[in-house]
Amino acid sequence: MDKREYIVSLIKEEEEPLKTMRSVASDTETYAPIVPSETAQLLKTMLKIIKPKRILEIGTAIGYSAILMAKNTDEDCEIITVERYEKVADIAINNIFEAGFEKKIRVVKGEAADIINWLDTGFDLVFMDGAKGQYIEFLPRVLNLLKSGGVLITDDVLYNDPNIEENATERHRKYTIVQRLRKYLEVINNHPQLETTVLEVGEGVAISYKK
Length: 211
Fold this sequence. Notes:
Helix content is 43%, strand content 21%. The chain is of the alpha/beta class. The protein has a single domain, classed as Vaccinia Virus protein VP39 (Rossmann fold). The chain has a seven-stranded mixed beta sheet, sandwiched between helices. The chain is globular and about 40 Å long.
């Protein structure tokens, strides 16, 4: 058992509907990108510490993380989550309804780069788990949306998925994403408004506190 397997073995079994959603997401025929279990546990812990009242999530996917956040925050917490793909957003909306959180979670369909420009400021927590290559472009507006004392959690920051079987175009696309992520990490680790730490959890998680 390697280090990651051991850490995962310590995590308590997920509650429904998250347990079923993870099973469906990991199936080869119904695969959907959701956070790994150790990242989910980190997010749960951070939510208990921060106790946010307003959360912005960039990258809804099937709604797993939004539901996890809804289950681990107070009843009066407002969660806005943005998904660019309409069909995927519709699946998330259905999952959120089935979980009973339709009044707490608002799914906004569209490109995050556009949507974050008209959202109101004052978020306690921003969870970025969308288009990794665009994190660096989202950052200035995200910091404006995040209030002082708020926390930015960015997922997949250590992403690196080389595959020699892929064609040159796909390998170049992934190389570009990795380079943009490294630039993003340089910026948030040296930003005057942020105090940042990077953790080797899942595909890498950056936690940034806005001063």
